[in-house]
Automatic annotation (TrEMBL):
Protein name: SpoVT-AbrB domain-containing protein
All residue ranges annotated as the SpoVT-AbrB domain in the record: 6-49
Gene3D superfamilies for the chain: 2.10.260.10
Presence of the UniProt keyword DNA-binding in the record: yes
Keyword check for DNA-binding: yes
Superkingdom of the organism of origin: Bacteria
Alphabetical keyword list: DNA-binding
A Pfam cross-reference name: MazE_antitoxin
Entry-linked SUPFAM superfamilies: AbrB/MazE/MraZ-like
Record InterPro entries: SpoVT-AbrB_dom, SpoVT-AbrB_sf
Length: 85
């Protein structure tokens, strides 16, 4: 591990630390990070992939291929009038 001591600096009404470019490059970080507190440490991580990020495009591709037939078929509710709610 590369340990480095740095100072906490005032940035406007907040405080922060500068992260050396070699650290950012090593992790492939560019504009965003995820930050968390674990025990007595502040942990910075690469952002995780957004869940369902590409689902809309994938759904369009499935529909365009014609492979989007209903698996269960139509689920009608014609007999729902007899149900008591």
């Amino acid at each position: 591990m590369n340990f480095m001591k740095t100072t906490i600096r005032r940035i406007g009404n907040s405080q922060g630390v500068l992260i050396p470019k070699p650290f950012l490059t090593q992790l492939g970080l560019e504009n965003e990070i995820e930050m968390d507190v674990e025990g007595d440490a502040i942990v910075l991580r690469k952002p995780r992939a957004i869940v369902r990020a590409a689902w809309a495009e994938a759904s369009k591709a499935v529909a365009a291929s014609g492979e989007d037939a209903l698996v269960l078929g139509e689920l009608g509710n014609a007999n729902d009038g007899a149900l008591e709610w």
